[in-house]
């Protein structure tokens, strides 16, 4: 890891674990889907449009930041790229309420490219927000761009370096849980039309990886092919996960993720467990049963 030099409605979708079944009790069809939903404490905030999504995201991040700093003196957040980075621009309006100097910023995945490449998630976040606010540069934890001169053979050394430096961080920066995984205060996640999160793609072998924290992928189904990504256990260890879904193009997959609870690896976003918050605009919610 190289350190870079309002809601319209809320609905709880799943909140409790059901007690385990008795020995010898036959599992009913569909029971695995209920178990999967029980592992996800999901809330949905429905808003009008993309601008309202950005405002709701900014409010959620500002609140989480303030609460984390009050409790632990720091806010450890990890971001996705793409349209989510642009939505973060709404945080500029929260500047006077945010203690930027207490932030520690990471990336849930990154393309193995130079920071000034338009494909760089770090570069996109810098353009959208962090180039204009007072987060200390040494607290922006970006992939080492010197390992990314070419998007060929870069994923493995980038992942190894990022994980090595993440493991070197002290508990005052980021705590470990009982399984020895870093516990980020918040992950800001997007999802693709195929349901992928980070750079964890449908039915990919990396979804079954349980050992590493930061994983290399050299065969991404969308370019550029070489990337690094949080593992699924690392994603699920975070205190809070926030998804943003905006626009009609997200409608079908949003409904699948929230209503079907698929656990076969075909929709990686459905495998995210724990406290999960969705910010969804009217267009993205249009194919849900209760839309």
Automatic annotation (TrEMBL):
<dbReference type="InterPro" id="IPR037171">
    <property type="entry name" value="NagB/RpiA_transferase-like"/>
</dbReference>
<feature type="region of interest" description="Disordered">
    <location>
        <begin position="1"/>
        <end position="35"/>
    </location>
</feature>
<dbReference type="InterPro" id="IPR006148">
    <property type="entry name" value="Glc/Gal-6P_isomerase"/>
</dbReference>
<dbReference type="GO" id="GO:0017057">
    <property type="term" value="F:6-phosphogluconolactonase activity"/>
</dbReference>
<dbReference type="InterPro" id="IPR039104">
    <property type="entry name" value="6PGL"/>
</dbReference>
<dbReference type="GO" id="GO:0006098">
    <property type="term" value="P:pentose-phosphate shunt"/>
</dbReference>
<dbReference type="Pfam" id="PF01182">
    <property type="entry name" value="Glucosamine_iso"/>
</dbReference>
<dbReference type="InterPro" id="IPR005900">
    <property type="entry name" value="6-phosphogluconolactonase_DevB"/>
</dbReference>
<dbReference type="GO" id="GO:0005975">
    <property type="term" value="P:carbohydrate metabolic process"/>
</dbReference>
<protein>
    <recommendedName>
        <fullName>Probable 6-phosphogluconolactonase</fullName>
        <ecNumber>3.1.1.31</ecNumber>
    </recommendedName>
</protein>
<comment type="pathway">
    <text>Carbohydrate degradation; pentose phosphate pathway; D-ribulose 5-phosphate from D-glucose 6-phosphate (oxidative stage): step 2/3.</text>
</comment>
<keyword id="KW-0378">Hydrolase</keyword>
<comment type="similarity">
    <text>Belongs to the glucosamine/galactosamine-6-phosphate isomerase family. 6-phosphogluconolactonase subfamily.</text>
</comment>
<feature type="compositionally biased region" description="Basic residues">
    <location>
        <begin position="15"/>
        <end position="34"/>
    </location>
</feature>
<feature type="domain" description="Glucosamine/galactosamine-6-phosphate isomerase">
    <location>
        <begin position="49"/>
        <end position="275"/>
    </location>
</feature>
